[in-house]
Amino acid sequence: MILTSKDLDTLCKKAIEAACCAGELISTYTNKNVLVQSKKGVDSLASQVVTEVDVKAQGKILEILNPTLSEFDLALLTEESADNGSRFTKDYFWCIDPMDGTLAFTEKTPGYAVSIALVAKDGESQIGVVFDPVKNILYHAIKGQGTYKNEQPWHPDLVSGSGKSFIWHMDRSFLNHSKYSSIKIRLEEFVSKAGFSSFTSQKNAGAVLNAIWLLENFGCYFKLPKPTSGGGSLWDFAATSCIINEANAYGKSFDGSPLDLNRPDSTFMNHKGALYASNVFIAKNIREILNN
Predict the structure, then answer these.
(1) Residues of 102-112 as b/e, b for ≥16 C-beta within 10 angstroms?
(2) Residue range 165-291, CATH number
(3) CATH classification code of 5-154
């Protein structure tokens, strides 16, 4: 089944409704103590943490999106449910992270968000919806229709960052990486030569807002390829891939190929990694730094 533009508009509205509904639920737990559990088979503290709120938020999302599965013949992949492989048999699938940045949520700091994407079987995002319940900001995009912020067309200025600040959005776990110090030094050198006014790093957010915040301020976010499982999951990048690309920013695999968002043998992104940047110029220089 090939979805029409009208179908995509309808599904995007459903995704927006679901994301906002989940975000409202998450907000009711902001100042409450919640039950925190751990997942197995993942490689960092941030990816191990799960709460009752993640599960309840997913429930809210599925209440709204489940009817679309039969109506539009869609598959489903969510963080808090097992991958049933249906994404390989349908033309499109919902890719859902009910609360990315759970660690930030448990620490009561900004950096968590609801993320919902519709991905084609070939791995290309068709719809991306992200809701930040802390700042009450909704971001969304439909392939070929541009990026929206709070449901208004949004055209962030990402062409020249001269005289502006530069932010390295990073995973907290990267502080322990063997190349952390050398990469930081080279990033600082690039930022200075490129004419940015300052260099800072931010390590509290999850992957979703790490990517989205590149549209709010100049910067980069990356996941290096590695032989072991991890490196983020499909649902960490599916929605932001659409939003970033429609905003004419940069979001690709580490080697420059499109993000592999329907990987057949895993839901992890470690095989190709990911590189997000505010523009192609930044991405080119970041890749050179990381390759060296």
Answers:
(1) bbbbbeeeebb
(2) 3.40.190.80
(3) 3.30.540.10
